[in-house]
Amino acid sequence: MEVIVILSDLYKVGIYLRLSREDDLKGESGSISNQREIINQYIKDNHLLFVSEYIDDGVSGTEFDREGWNRLISDIEAKRINMVITKDLSRFGRNEGQQLRYLDYFYENAIRYVAILDHVDTFDESNTSNEMIPIQCFFNEKHVRDTSKKMKASVFHKRSQGCFLGKTAPYGYKKDPNNKYKLVIDQEAALVVKKIFDLFVDGKAISEISRILTDKKIPIPSEYKSLTVGMKSTAYGIWNNRTISDILQLPTYVGDLTQGRFRKPSYKSKKRIRQKKEDWIICKDQCPAIIDREVFDLVQNIYQRNKNQGKHTQNILLKGLVYCKECGHTIGFRLQKVSTKKKGEVIRCYGNCNYWSKYKKYNVCTPHNTKYFDLEDLVLSEIRKICESNLHPNYLKDVLQSRDKSKKILNDLESQLRKLEMEVKLCKKKKEDLYYDKLEGIIDLDLYIRMKNRIAEEVTIKQSEIQEISQRLYHIKNEVTVCNERYDHFIKEYLSMERPNIQLLSSIIDKIVIDENRNIDIYYKFKPLENGY
Fold first, then answer.
1. Taking each helix axis from N to C terminus, what angle separates 405-439 and 393-403, rounded to the nearest 10 degrees?
2. Which of 58, 246, 248, 403 makes a 20 to 30 Å CA pair with 205?
3. Phi and psi for 490 in degrees, rounded to 5?
């Protein structure tokens, strides 16, 4: 189709001003006011008619879905303007393909375009700079591409050094007001994080945890962040299963700062893609921990073996622990409601090899039909016998206490206290020696007073530290007493197996293996003793 361009002596000008975040760092030469000043001078010198101004402040040139730009195109369509001026081609954009497409659009619609500093004027046929437009557009985009690479390298280096570079802190944390690269615990949100881990360890399914938090009207992370900066909200939102899943798997909660979980496929794209776990940037012990490492490891163990289980298996105690001996895949269980004449409606549970269920037509394995509740009774009976014959309560209590962080903190504080008390005694001895040195004329009165005051100041500081540590010891010793009572309860439950839960079984059983003849082997996480403890 032939395009007929009609030139008009009257140019109605729309000036376009754009500033990206990167440009803002370059100072006044790239600012909106500087662009405006240059363009207004051009309009004045060339006796043009100014109609409107279109601004996109803080918007990347790689994308063209911009508020100011869209308004400019709308005014072109409405015939309000027939000329567009920018300071240079880079203000127009930094996406070669899109820029050339819009330049064709301008030509087809008889829109004159001028880029002042690049000497571009699309209606000046004698202007040789117009021929350089494709090359200039290429280099403008290349600049963005090169800058993106440099920024990625810089970000990766800083993250690898343990610097937090996220726009907002992970749920449960907030940015340290004294250091923007560090995180501190947000006590209110941290309680919710602990609740999520506790519920999961107690055997609650992710969907059930989501429902519990939603029913209690606990704000979801995105709304909580808004609430903490003063925004009012009456809607708390619904907790999403993916949110709970992400929280349960995030190493940041044990103090291992984790970043780089998402990436953009291109510097031109807004889309975020989830990274594989092995590509995350994890810096150990770079932020305060909310969850104990032992609890976190237990949660990962439970999560991994339950992630492929059915949605309605949360009441199955052994889910994820039972494996097929022949192919090595898990045995999956399903609950069924069955009506009987004697008992009415009862719940039954059956299991099959998951690999066989998925590919049964290829004869890859055998069904391994298993009655779940019979299996559970047998396994719990065997575990009870093993625990009673191999584990002594005092042994278990020693193990639990040795793994208790509060016990370690208690020992460290007591050591610090003894050291400080010894240093105070030494200071008092120095003070006495100093007094005798003055009496014997070894030092004069002025030196004696200065040194005595210095020692007194040192003693005051150390006594203050002693008082603070003594208070902490008092509180921790009370906590240890409570912990010992909890240990006694836990050990009793451990040995009796009267009320088993997923946490308890995960700490005892490594896996249960069933062969096609229904023979069962139980593999434990501890080595049974031949003659007991």
1. 60
2. 403
3. -65, -45
Judging by beta carbons within 10 Å of its beta carbon (0-12, 13-18, 19+), is residue 507 exposed, middle or buried?
middle
Residues in a beta bridge with 56: 18
Q: How far apart are CA 33 and CA 44, in angstroms?
A: 16
Among candidate residues 42, 2, 38, the one with its CA nearest the CA of residue 17: 38
Locate 425 and state its tokens: 């005694």
CATH of 12-147, one of 3.20.20.70, 3.40.50.1390, 2.60.120.920, 3.60.15.10: 3.40.50.1390
Q: Residues 156-214: pLDDT tens digits?
A: 778 788 888 888 888 999 988 888 889 899 999 999 999 999 888 877 888 889 889 98
* pLDDT score, position 317: 80
Fold: same for 12-147 and 173-303: no
All residues at 6 or more sequence positions from 254 whose CB lies less than 8 Å from its CB, including other chains: 289, 290, 291, 292, 293, 296
Check: CB of residue 74 under 8 Å from CB of residue 109.
no
pTM for the whole structure? 0.49
The domains of the chain are located at 12-147, 173-303, 308-397+506-524, 404-500
Architecture of domain 173-303: Alpha-Beta Complex (3.90)
